[in-house]
Amino acid sequence: YTDKVASAHPDGIKFFVDWHAFGHIILMPYGGNCSLRVANYDRQMELARQTTAIIESVAGSKYSQLPVKMSAQNKIAPNSPSRASPSELEQNIAQALYDLETNTADLKVALRPLQFVSAREVRTT
């Protein structure tokens, strides 16, 4: 799928977000494990609630939110020698998403013209 997206943009892609949901659940990318919570857990859950509200207002679909019980570092860099904290890449991705998500009014306007085609593709109308 990413090859298809990349080939459609021969000048390169500056930023790519692949939003995931399982069974109408927004899965948070850095949720910790069953006995620990990341420091910004409440902020993550608030952003997830805002995201679900935007999706419902645009597409009418109702979602709930859950943290993934595996760190983003384990998912993005499974062979990393340190699992104590997110890598620089993860921090950069998280910051970019945070910057995008903190301006929810603009995000809502940007999402409105999108038509959700499938779990793997978003097409502009």
UniProtKB/TrEMBL annotation:
Xref: InterPro entries? Ribosomal_eS7
Q: What is this protein called?
A: Peptidase M14 carboxypeptidase A domain-containing protein
A Pfam family cross-referenced in the UniProt record is Ribosomal_S7e
Supply the Gene3D superfamilies for this chain. Answer: Zn peptidases (3.40.630.10)
GO terms (molecular function) for this protein are: metallocarboxypeptidase activity; structural constituent of ribosome; zinc ion binding
Query: Belongs to which family?
Result: Belongs to the eukaryotic ribosomal protein eS7 family.
UniProt superkingdom: Eukaryota
Task: Kindly state which keywords UniProt assigns to this record, in alphabetical order.
Answer: Ribonucleoprotein, Ribosomal protein
GO terms in the biological process aspect are: proteolysis; translation
Keyword Ribonucleoprotein recorded: yes
UniProt entry tagged with the keyword Transmembrane: no
Provide GO CC annotations from the record. Answer: ribonucleoprotein complex; ribosome
